[in-house]
Every structure is written in C-alpha cells, then in structure tokens.
Design a protein that fits this description.
With about 260 residues, this protein is α+β, with helices and mostly antiparallel strands. The chain is built from two helices and 20 strands. The strands form five sheets. The chain has a five-stranded mixed sheet, with no helix packed on it.
C-alpha cells in the first residue's frame, strides 16, 4: 500500500483515482481505504500525544501504572517527592524494650526509620503500600520519638512523618496503703472495711480484684465487706506501661 505523487492511490496493485466516488469503489477497495485511514488516524494521535503531553508526561503515566502493579523499576522523569509515611497506632507506653512498628506509604518505596533522630532501620513497602519493622529496640528509658521517611524509585525523599512517641517504662508504680493497717482488728456491727492509699497518677488500682476509684493525684479508695475472722486484702496497682506493684495485708473482724 503506497502513495504516488501523481494524485493516485495504489491498493492491491490497483490504481484508484481521487476523482472516483465512494459508491464506485469495490468492496475490497473500500476495506483497504478504511484500513489506511485507521493507520493514519492512529499515527496522528500518537504524534499529537507526544507533542502535547511530552515524553516526560508519558513517564509519569508509567509511574502511575507501577503503583498498581507493584513494579520496582525506576521511574524516569519523576521529580515529585512521595508523601511521608503514616504509622499505625501503637501503645504510647510499654515495659518492653522492643516494639513492632507498622504503617503505609507509597508502594515499592524504601522506608527509613529514625528513633530520637538517629537512623535505625530500612524496609521496602509491599505492593499495597504497607511496611513493617519488627523487634525495634527502644534505646531510651522514657520518651522515644519515632519518625520515618519514604524514598521512591526515582530517589525522591519525602518529608519526615508525624512523630510516633513511645515511652519505655520498666519501673513498677509506687503504692502505699494508709488504711487499714496490716494486722488491724475490727469489731462491731459495721462490717465495712475502708481501704485507702496512694499511687502514681494515671495508675489503675484493684482491691481484691475490684477496681478502686483513683483520683487525679493518685489517691484511691475502696470498700470491702469483712467476714468474721481473718480477711486477706490484696491491692494491685498497674501503670500505663503494664508494670505492677502488689501489697498484701490481713485484718481480723469479730461481730
């Protein structure tokens, strides 16, 4: 199929004059002409796309496709930094020296993890954009500030993520029982035993497995019903990190 400059098409070795009308063409000539027009249309569309979008724009389209396929090849022409990683929530207090950090970011990005501003580890996100760091060591007993950055396939680096703060606390809470005294004896018709004491603010207190009321300053109160004879009282204080302090005492009651 070719074009002669004398104003005639050659289709299947037949010369087609431009002056011929569509109705005078045979079926084969019509099909060949339609196919020729299709090829010309596609060629013009590709040239127009390259002109208006540009090669650089087409590389961005390729990068967008990689987000869905999970391909890890470099994206040429990508100069846009990825969004910063997002952490999944974790307990803000722990008594364990290691934690697991998970979250999500741009697929196939390299995630760099920092603790207190120091780089600790790297991981690559899965096709769905998730990442995980297991066994992350908390270096400071107290407040640990965790952040991360994402580096995409074109080596663009994101801004730092929002801070994830985890407080490492291995010490049990303070616990003092002010009343009753260990070994104290009670008698009379009043069978109620008032248990009072003080612990750290924010701590949970249970008296014989019953949760006590704890005020903002750590003072707690609870009431038990005594039975005749010896009565064992167990007070357990648990802080936000899960550390426990237990105090046991015994009182005697007689009617």
């Amino acid at each position: 199929m070719y074009y002669r400059p004398r104003g005639k098409y050659a289709i299947n070795r037949k010369r087609l004059r431009l002056s011929q009308s569509w109705k005078t063409l045979g079926r084969d000539d019509r099909n060949e002409l339609v196919n020729l027009l299709k090829v010309l249309g596609i060629t013009i569309a590709v040239i127009a796309a390259l002109y208006f979008v540009g090669i650089k724009g087409l590389t961005y389209i390729g990068g967008f496709w990689n987000l869905f396929t999970g391909e890890t090849g470099p994206t040429i022409g990508d100069e846009t930094a990825p969004p910063p990683p997002t952490f999944n929530p974790v307990s803000p207090y722990t008594k364990n020296s290691t934690v697991t950090i998970t979250g999500f970011a741009e697929p196939a990005a390299e995630i760099t993890l920092y603790i207190n501003g120091i780089e600790k580890s790297k991981a690559t996100t899965e096709a769905g954009g998730t990442f995980s760091f297991s066994g992350v060591v908390l270096p400071t007993e107290g407040k640990n500030v965790i952040t991360a950055t994402a580096t995409d396939r074109a080596s663009n680096i994101s801004q730092k993520s929002a801070e994830l703060i985890v407080t490492l606390d291995k010490k049990p809470p303070t616990l003092t029982i002010t009343k009753p005294k260990d070994g104290q004896a009670f008698s009379g018709t009043d069978t109620q035993i008032h248990v009072e004491g003080k612990t750290e603010a924010g701590t949970t207190v249970k008296v014989n497995e019953i949760q006590a009321t704890v005020l903002a300053d750590g003072i707690f109160k609870s009431t038990l019903v005594a039975k005749e004879g010896d009565n064992k009282i167990t007070v357990v204080a648990t802080d936000k990190a899960g550390n426990e302090k237990k105090v046991e005492l015994s009182i005697t009651y007689s009617p």
